[in-house]
Amino acid sequence: MSSHPAACLAAAKAFGSGINAAATGFIRDNAEAIMKESPISYVKDAELHGNLFNPTDTTGAISSVDTKFFIDHIGPLKALEWVRQEQGWPLGDLIDGYEFLLIVKNRRRNRLIFSSPSQ
Predict the structure, then answer these.
(1) What contacts 12, CB < 8 A, 6 or more positions away?
(2) Element containing residue 5 per DSSP (H, E)
């Protein structure tokens, strides 16, 4: 969860394959259960919002949560505009008091197997 697109971009790159590979079906199917297990109260109590969770939502949000954190979004909105122009953005609009919700499947890493030459 973050109100800043750069944080979402970094997480998507670090744990997945980039923001445009975000599996919205995975987010939709797992968000509620994952958030309810959080030990952090504001995460546990945040309400899911956006078209991904409610097809009749017309706010422009796709995957977000209402955290009721009303902060200055000037910087995040400028970053969001740039990201949309440069590479697209699957999480929708940033609504006042909301944060984006990105959940990524951890990509599997190939395990290196070291063997010693047999003698």
Answers:
(1) 18, 19, 21, 22, 102, 104
(2) helix 5-15
Calculate mean pLDDT across residues 78-102. Answer: 92
Mapping DSSP to helix (H, G, I), strand (E, B) and coil, where does residue 32 land?
Answer: helix
| Comparison of pLDDT for 68 and 112, the residue scoring more | 68
Residues 28, 33: Cα–Cα separation, whole Å: 10
Q: What is the mean pLDDT of the chain?
A: 87
CA distances from residue 68 to 4, 52, 71, 83, 114 in whole angstroms, order as listed: 15, 19, 9, 24, 51
> How many of the other CB atoms lie within 10 Å of CB of 117?
4
Nearest-CA neighbor of 98 among 51, 52, 48, 57?
A: 48
Task: Convert 33-95 into a string of H (helix), E (strand) and C (coil).
Answer: HHHHCCCCHHHHHCEEECCCCCCCCCCCECCEEEEEECCCCHHHHHHHHHHHHHCCCCCECCC
